[in-house]
Design brief:
Elements (H helix, E strand, L loop, with lengths): L5 E6 L5 H12 L3 E3 H11 L2 H11 L6 H15 L1 H4 L1 E4 L5 H8 L14 E6 L2 H9 L1 E3 L6 E3 L7 E3 L5 E3 L6 H14 L3 H7 L3 E5 L4 H17 L2 H4 L1
Parallel strand pairs: 1-3, 1-4, 2-3, 4-9
Antiparallel strand pairs: 5-6, 7-8
Bound molecules: zinc ion (ZN).
The site of zinc ion has 7 residues, from loops.
Length: about 230
């Protein structure tokens, strides 16, 4: 296939971005590229960059822009990211990262990495808070679920471990992460919009319904991409 879709998914933590990214990638037959996975791979490979990333993640910090860009560029060079298409999940996180990878000219064609569309999953902060407060994660294998009753402290994962609330899923910590998102990632919506590449999607409600909304919003962007029309 000559023209594989290149899609960026934007959304607050708890917006369902990870789930929808994976589903969309499978649906379109392109790789789901999550920066979380890229970081874990870099750490596992034990490269100099991976060790620096590992130290930051161990301290619970955010990987700085220049290192994120390096990790993504390395992956892009090794795997032919652009030619193979993608659903990017977690990158870019800032306008600095977006400009470093996609370019700064109006058409974003300078670096040759122009995405077809950035989908912004729109979920109100209050709803995200409630979703994250109800999240239970298995510390052994990462299995994640949402409990109906947020007073339930732990549930069993399919392998029988106890899935619990992550220490950084307290309302205070969630509030801090949401505020950070507004400052750091919030400007990416307008940035993609200025390049004519933003599709906003209502991320509330049933995940199946949200997925269909994403597909509907994507269609005109994928139809008009140069390689399919020319
Ligand atoms: Zn488990």
């Amino acid at each position: 296939m000559a023209n594989r879709p290149r899609i960026v998914l934007l959304g607050r933590q708890g917006s369902g971005k990870g789930t929808q990214s994976a589903r969309l990638a499978a649906h379109l037959g392109v790789p789901h590229v999550s920066t979380g996975d890229l970081f874990r791979t870099a750490v596992r490979d034990g490269t100099a960059l991976g060790r620096r990333v590992g130290d930051i993640l161990d301290d619970g910090g955010l990987v700085p822009d220049d290192m994120v860009i390096e990790v993504v560029r390395e992956h892009a060079a090794r795997r032919g990211l652009d030619a193979g298409g993608y659903v990017l999940d977690g990158f870019p996180r800032t306008v600095v990262q977006a400009e470093a990878y996609f370019g700064t000219d109006a058409a974003l064609t300078q670096a040759g990495h122009r995405p077809d569309v950035a989908v912004e999953l729109d979920v109100p902060a209050e709803l995200v808070l409630a979703r994250l407060a109800a999240r239970r994660v298995c510390p052994v294998d990462g299995w994640t679920t949402t409990v109906e009753d947020p007073t339930v402290e732990a549930v069993r994962c399919p392998d029988g471990h106890l899935a619990v609330q992550r220490p950084d899923d307290t309302p205070e910590a969630i509030g801090r992460r949401l505020a950070l998102y507004e400052v750091e990632t919030g400007p990416l919506g307008p940035w993609f919009a200025a390049h004519g590449l933003l599709a906003r999607v209502d991320g509330t409600g049933d995940p199946d319904v949200v997925f269909q909304r994403i597909l509907d919003e994507l269609e005109p962007f994928l139809d008009r991409s140069p390689a399919t029309t020319g």
